[in-house]
C-alpha cells in the first residue's frame, strides 16, 4: 500500500464527509467506499486504535453512531460531569434488570417508569398508566464514547488483574509489567511521581490532590482514613499524594488514601479519545476518515469455507439508535455500506458490541435462529458473562455543611474476603446513589458520602440478548447481580461500608465539627449508635447496589483469542470493554484505552496477511 495514495484518499474522503456533526448527508444515498480498516465506535476502545492504524499509514474509516459534542461545555469542563451524564446530546438511555427475581426488582428504589405524557417517573409509586422501564443505565453515544461523560477517575488495574489474563491465555504480553508500557505510551502525566510515566501521550492525566483536596474538612477526613489504614497522622500528606498508577512493588495491597488521578488537564478540561480523534482528523496528516451519525447495523462477510469480514452496513442519520432520547422511530436513516480490505474492528462498548455481533450472525445459535438471523459462527458466549463493579455507598448527614463539596479523595480497602485490596471508595460532601434520569439526588449541604466500587466481583452471569432483529432497538440486559458468590461479595461490600463508618465514628465531636454523622443508608441512625443487623444491611446492599462499568460481554478466552480476534471467522476483532475476561480494577476507562493501544500492535502485526 503506497502511503502517499492513502494520505490522498484520506483527504478525499474527509472532503466528501466533513467532520461537522450537522453536515446534512445527501438526501437519497451515501457513497459506498473501501478502506484498509473499518473501526466501529470511537470510544476508549475504538478511538485510539483507529488513530494508530491511520498513523501507521493505512486508510481507516471510523464509524460513530453519535455526533460531535467536543465543543459542548457540559463535556469539556470536567466539573460539569453530572450535567454531561444527563445531557440528551450525548445520552444513550439503557434500562436493565439486576436479576430475574421480580419481587427483588420491584424493590429497587430508583426504578424508572415512562409516564403517559412521555416523561420519566422515578420511584416505587408510579402514576396510573406508567410503563415500567427498569433500572436506568447510562451510556454515551457520541464521538469519544462514555469517556465524554464519565467522572474521569483513572486507575491502572491491579497487577493481579492483568497477570490473570496472561496466565489464563498463556500470552505473556498481558502481564502487568508489559501492560504498563501502554499506559506510559498513551499518557501525558501532569503530576510528579517517583514512578516512570509518559509525558507526551494523548491522554492528559492530573492528580487532583494538589488542586482540589485543600479544604480543612477534606484534610480532616483524609487524616482519619489514613489512620484507619495504619498510618501516622504526620504521614497524611505524603499518603494522600501516593500515585495509584505508580509501579510500586506489591501495589495490589497498598491501602488507604491516594491521589485522585483523573483524565483531565491541570485546568480541569476533560481529556479523552473524542478530542484526540478529532484533533488527528483535523490535522489532515493521516488517512483517517471519521464518519459521525452512522449506526452500524451488521458486519458483511465473504462467506467462503471460512467467513471473512469484508465490510459493514450502516444507517446514516442523527439519533437513529432508539436508546437516544432524541430518537424518532419514524426517521429511518439512509443505508450505506463500507468495505475493508484488511479488517473490521468492532468497538461499540459492552452492550452494543455483542448486539452488532449477533445481528451479524455471530452469537448463540438458538438466539440467532429465534430472530431468523443466519448463523455465520455459533459463538455461545457472545452477550454472556457480562460483569460489572458492584457499587454501593454509605451516605450520611454531617452535623453542619461540608465546607467544600467538590473536594473528594480516593481510598483503598481490603476486606477479610479479598485476595488483594477489593474496595475502591471515594469520599466527600456529595451524594451518589446510582443512576436514574436526572441523577443524583441532592440531600443538602450536609451530605457526606463514601461511594464504594467493589473490584473483582465473583459473579459474571450478566447477559445482553437481542430484543429483536432491528438494529435500532437496544438489547435486553440483565446484569444478574450476585448470582454467584453472593455471600462473599456482600460481605466485602458490607465491610467496605463499615470501614468508612468506623473512621467516621472517630471524627472529633467538637463545636462546629462535621461529626456526629447521621447515616441515611445502609444503616440509618447516628453513627456509633446504630442498631441494624448486618443481615439487614446486606439485604439493602444486595437490592440497591448499582453499576456503570460493564465489561466482558464478548470476552477473551471464549469469544475472542488473546489478540482480540473473533473466533470462528477471519478479519474481525473486538477491541473495547467487552473484551476483558473479567472486570479490570475499579475503573475500566484507562484499561480500555490501554488495550486499544495493545490491540493496535496486534492488528498491525497481521497487516501484511491481507492484500
Ligand atoms: C456515567 C458514567 C460514568 C463513568 N465514570 C467512569 C470513571 O470515572 N472512570 C472510569 O474508568 N470509567 C467510568 N465509566 C465507564 C467507562 O466510561 C467505560 O467503561 C468506557 O467508556 C468503555 O469504553 P468502550 O470503548 O468499551 O465503550 P463506549 O465508551 O461505550 O464507546 C462505544 C462507542 O461506540 C459507539 N457505538 C455503539 N454502537 C455503535 C454502532 N452500532 N455503530 C456505530 N457506533 C456505535 C457509541 O456511540 C460509543 O461512542 C463511566 C461510565 C458511565 C456511563
Ligand atoms: C448540559 O446538560 C443539561 C442536562 O444535564 C442540558 O439541559 C443542557 O442543555 C446542556 N447544555 C449544553 C450547553 O449542551
Ligand atoms: C513537580 O515538581 C517540581 C520540582 O519540585 C515543581 O516545580 C512542580 O511544581 C511540581 N509539579 C506539580 C504538578 O506538583
Ligand atoms: C450503498 O449501499 C446501500 C446499501 O446496500 C445501497 O442502498 C446504496 O444504493 C449504495 N449507494 C451507492 C451510491 O451505491
Ligand atoms: C422467522 O421466519 C419464519 C418463517 O419465515 C416466520 O414464521 C417467523 O415469524 C420469523 N420470525 C421472526 C422473529 O421474524
Ligand atoms: C434502633 O434505633 C432507632 C433510631 O435510630 C430507634 O427508633 C429504635 O427504637 C431502635 N431499636 C432498637 C431495637 O433499639
Automatic annotation (TrEMBL):
Molecular function, one GO term: oxidoreductase activity, acting on CH-OH group of donors
PROSITE patterns hit by this protein: GMC_OXRED_2 (PS00624)
Q: Which residues form the signal peptide?
A: 1-23
Q: Where does FAD bind?
A: 296
- Top-level taxon of origin: Eukaryota
Cofactor(s) recorded in Swiss-Prot or TrEMBL: FAD
* Domain Glucose-methanol-choline oxidoreductase N-terminal: start-end pairs: 349-363
Query: What keywords is this UniProt entry annotated with?
Result: FAD, Flavoprotein, Signal
Q: Which family does it belong to?
A: Belongs to the GMC oxidoreductase family.
PANTHER family associated with the record? GLUCOSE-METHANOL-CHOLINE GMC OXIDOREDUCTASE, GMC OXIDOREDUCTASE
List the protein's name. Answer: Glucose-methanol-choline oxidoreductase N-terminal domain-containing protein
Q: Which organism is it from?
A: Clohesyomyces aquaticus
